[in-house]
Amino acid sequence: MKKVILTILLLTAGLVAQAQDKKEEGIKFTDTKTIPCTSIKDQYRSGTCWCFSGVGYLESEILKASGKEIDLSEMWLVRNLYFEKVVKYVRLHGSLNLEQGGGLDEVLYAAKKYGVVPEEVYHGHNYGTEKPEFGELIEILKSYAKAVVSNRNRKLTTAWMNGLNGILDAYFGPRVEEFTYQGKQYTPTTFLESLPIKTSDYISLTSFTHHPFYEKFIIEIPDNWLWQEVYNVTMDEMMQVIDSAMEQGYAVLWGTDVSEKGFNRQKAIGVIPQEDVESLEGTDAAHWNKLSATEKNALIYGLKAPVKEKQITQEMRQKAFDNYETTDDHGMIIIGTATDQAGHPFYKVKNSWGVRKPYDGYYYFSRPFVQYKTIDIMVNKKAVSKEILKKLKVSLAK
To answer: What does the alpha-carbon distance between residue 198 and residue 381 come to, in Å, rounded to a whole number?
Structure first.
């Protein structure tokens, strides 16, 4: 009898353990396509996701075109663009967003104007740390720029730009004129020209209804201090471009909003859960209605299992943008596709927050999240269908 009871207890314990494991399983992903990319970087204590994602994107394009990995310097482009940003701030009498962030197109703009250099040539941390830490730097730049604008001379001196360059050189290091890389001599411009990519190969797209479709407009986000233009397409066409890029092995540079409740940093997942209880019946609905708001949120956003998500429409995208619910928070790179255990489609995304659990610095965002929270994307024009390019009056040769 004791043996029988012991066996029953062991079986019961096993079943309970299995039930707990199943309950705590969480959302599991199976990668269905992964586009080769370079290693995960860490922007650390700097608001430079725009540069880390943009540089990582160019590295992916180089890898696709040549099969060779290269580590390009982010800080080279940051240093040159911060100079331009402060100058524009002064020209506008202080009426510009002078912060660390930037827009999706800035890396391409800066590469075209200033060239690129390898990381080993320009590390850019000339202030005693191995990782970017911009807290002191940005406050100094803002204070300096404000002092220039508000000076009592009623005009600008011929020295202030030299002073700005002095600050930037002190923090990032002097600008590189020439360098040797793998036994060859380059300038930043000739190094860019030696790479198997062209800055004219790319196109930026978004999808909002407050501007006409198939035309360009300056996207109205605070970090777009360069006033760069993007092409406007429908939401469905934007998603077609992303899917086409994935199918053809092209990464996608992605500007998005990670302040959304459905984005969980610890679990590295972004979803847009369905919050209504229309599908619940009887005792389930009664139980749900008794829960507090905190308890409901914990169930919806706890991500302990695959969730039912909202069906995103063009109107929902626009409303969220107009109401400041969708903001320009972060830049990343879409480098693949995946499904969860319920078969829901996700995109695999390369981030710049360092190698961290649970996916070694990669994140998974659902299709509804990308539909809803995309600010803009950049992609190789070869990944865009001829029909969409025709609507935009864009040629592959341009």
So the answer is: 11
Q: How far apart are CA 217 and CA 227, in angstroms?
A: 9
Taking each helix axis from N to C end, the angle separating 74-91 and 135-149, rounded to the nearest 10 degrees, works out to 20
Residue 316's alpha-carbon distances to 45, 194, 347, in angstroms, are: 33, 44, 21
Q: Which helix (DSSP H) or strand (DSSP E) does residue 59 occupy?
A: helix 49-66
Question: For 2, what's the count of Cα atoms within 13 Å in the CB-facing half-sphere?
Answer: 0
Spatial distance between the Cα atoms of 303 and 285, rounded to a whole number of angstroms = 20
Four-point Cα dihedral 275, 276, 280, 285, nearest 10: 100
- For the entire predicted model, the pTM comes to 0.91
**pLDDT score, position 16:** 38
| Measured distance CA(308)–CA(320) in Å, rounded | 20
Distance (Å, rounded) from C-alpha 76 to C-alpha 211?
A: 34
Q: What is the pLDDT of residue 12?
A: 38
What is the average pLDDT value for the chain, to the nearest integer? 92
| 26-272+309-392: CATH architecture | Alpha-Beta Complex (3.90)
Identify whether 358 is preceded by a cis peptide bond (ω within 30 of 0): yes
Query: Is 286 within 8 Å of 204 (Cβ atoms)?
Result: no
pLDDT digits (tens, 9 = 90+) for 239-248: 999 999 999 9
For the chain, the structural domain boundaries read 26-272+309-392
Q: What percent of the chain has pLDDT over 70?
A: 90
Position 338 confidence tier, pLDDT thresholds 50, 70, 90 = very high
Which tens digits make up the pLDDT trace of 61-87? 999 999 999 999 999 999 999 999 999
